[in-house]
Amino acid sequence: MRRGILTSFNASTYTANVLIMEATDAFLQGVPVATHIDGTSALAGTLCAVHFFDEQNYTDAVVMAVYPNGSQGVPTPPPGRTTFVAPFRQVNADVIASGAIHTYSFTGGTTGIPLGALGVLYKAAFSSASSGAFINIAPHNGTPGNYATIGNLPAANTTLNDVGMVPLDANGQVDIQANGGSCTVTLVTYGYVF
Prior knowledge:
Blueprint: E1 2-10, E2 15-20, E3 27-32, E4 47-52, E5 61-67, E6 82-96, E7 101-105, E8 119-128, E9 134-139, E10 148-151, E11 158-167, E12 173-179, E13 183-193
Antiparallel strand pairs: 1-2, 1-4, 2-3, 4-5, 6-13, 7-12, 8-11, 8-13, 9-10, 9-12
């Protein structure tokens, strides 16, 4: 294992050019990069850990990790990785009174959404006996109107569907608010941002 400075990353070949710190004259080109590292974190100037399987053949090595070099190499904004999972019904025909907010926990257990997820990809549907009804979906304790809105329902006793992405709070929770009439809500998650 050697420490280096990543000088460039090639996403099409998933290789990097690296300057090995213990041997400042050793500039390696085309070193394979572990596939959990992507272009949002493999920034020029970051420090990196290179694992050599054969010290005589640098192509038989892999860049295992990248990390900040002081203030250099810190991604801005921080990377977010989207992962798709098997659909999971988080909310099943829950009736929410007009103006009311219901809170749901989306992470952990069998949901497929891990603790620590930053947001979820969802498909939501709602119906209402009131024309013009709509729902807001927001992170728990967020301002409902500042995030996702589905509606206004064009006619009473109809259904609207939508897909989107919404942030989670630190506890993996989301609020859903009904507006303009009582709403029956179903929501399925099928991915997350970590």
